[in-house]
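Hey, I'm writing a tutorial for new members on how sequence and structure tokens pair up, and I'd like a real worked example in the thread rather than a made-up one. If someone can provide the structure for the chain below, I'll link this post from the tutorial.
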Amino acid sequence: MTVPVLRRSLTAAILLAGAVWAQAVRFDVGNLDRGASPCADFYQFACGTWIKNNPVPADQARWDRFAELAERNRQTLRAILEGAGQSQIGDYYAACIDTAAIDRKGLAPLQAELDRIAALRNKTELAPLVARLHRFGADVVFGFGSGQDFKDSSQVIAQADQAGLGLPDRDYYLKTDARSVELRGKYQGHVERMFALAGYAPAPARRAAAAVMRLETALARASLDLVSRRDPEKVYHKLTTADLEKLAPAFAWRRYLADTGAAPLGAINVAVPDFFKGLDKLLRATPLDQWKHYLTWQALHAAAIMLPAKFIDETFDFYGRTLTGTKQLRPRWKRCVDSTDNHLGEALGRQFVERTFGADGKQRTLRMVDALEKALGRDLDTLAWMTPETRRQARVKLAAIRNKIGYPDRWRDYSAVTVAPGDALGNLFRTSEFEFARQLAKIGKPLDRGEWGMSPPTVNAYYDPLMNDINFPAGILQPPFFDKEMDDAVNFGAIGAVIGHELTHGFDDQGRQFDAQGNMRDWWTPADAKEFERRAACLVEEYSKFEVAPGAPINGKLTLGENTADNGGVRIALMALEDVLSGRPQPAADGFSPQQRLFLGFAQVWCSNATEESRRLQASVDPHSDARFRVNGTVRNMPEFQRAFSCQAGQPMVSANACRVW
């Protein structure tokens, strides 16, 4: 469910997907474009030949180094699943991959849910039905779940948040430019065709799709924008159940909570109160039949992956071909591997770790983390703009950061989940219900600080400000990010910059609002806060000038935290490398000094190709900048880079107004 999650990942999950399996994804000077100048366009210099040789595959919207590694991991997961026999993960995957059985059943596995929606007699009955759909993983009307109390991070409370949209973000419903209007028309057409596939006659399908569009647009108008949501204060409103009932009295909250199975609630973080006020007005003004159309659409959308091919093809046509520019649907086995990972991630991930990572990999990574934390500490100690009191508290917070590397210490128990052979949709719903119940069971209980938010095979990483920890799944701790056969310079440039990136999230415009225990508390002096904001504004201005496609600039405010982390992460990695190399002169390798290889190692993990549609989508909703500007935007701010490559004032990779926070 959609709830206020502030953890800061390295890259967006929607952009991570595999295509053609690559045998080797290591750092390689053969990827360089020797015809480009590193001082004119470092990204092109570091990645030009890779970009030329790696066009976007037909079944992808984006192909990058993350995708290469994710595809290699996916092959490993496939081998595990195909050899799993009669087990939870084996039965889940086998049922998912059996498209013949899914096609034979048609809509029958979903029909009971559709009938429940059709049988609604009044709006009071919406509440238990919404609860049921939430348990099954449908993102309808609003989001509900659990999370840490922002001001008492040791406790878990209920959370309610805005949700319920079929397009990626509220702005897709509200922008008036020609491209947005055209996309909304295509979305409504997609919804209409899904109704037709479900048996609606042409005219009722059109009316139903129009009703969905009106209702979702109203939800979008009540929603908070993405930039505002980056401010923790704006998504934290601790209320009682009675307070929530006053915000939206037209919704039967007590019936909803009873049907979710949640224990009596002491408090709820109602992330966006205005959303629930808007929902109340919408509930009163919208006829029941229109709510039925909306719920039917959302049920079809949530179940589509396990429905017959005609539903999957129609879903891909809009969400793949139209929205991201993907030309071809991915093979079924890849989608089923990903679904198994999404729903039984630690059961599958445990076997993945045994095959790919192990305890030795964890220890090697921890040694690198230690070097990077020492470098960040030295950086904090020497920042000229930070006052002693804030520096002291920053040091306390750094010392308290917990490092989760590879895999959890305690594996999740899925024994309560029923996975039935041949029941693809039922398995999807039951695993979703298990996770929903697991989340609600945390409410009112002390926090489990050992829990992970990503499965072990994931090619990603994140920092969680309420946990005050960094999380590096085994999936990313492989080449080209970490390679035991590579020199320290390349490894510090690749995974070292990623670790530095995540560490600095603890001190960026969001992370700095939480203390060492993960509580939302302003521990900065006014002078330090003002200076931080001035330096952050430099990055906002810089990145807002970059365009990913004609008329599609990067949103410098939305991407501020990630841009700050990119800039700080590379600098911290360089400091750590120089500490490790201290007293050990390193000869050039492949014609490059250790410092140059660090920057090349950093750049090459971001080598990327993407469709224009996916770049536009990223610019609209993703807090991460486009790969080219993650590299060039960082190095142009670094005198260390300019010294390493002998760049001169006036060249593009030398900013006349260099930005620096860390």
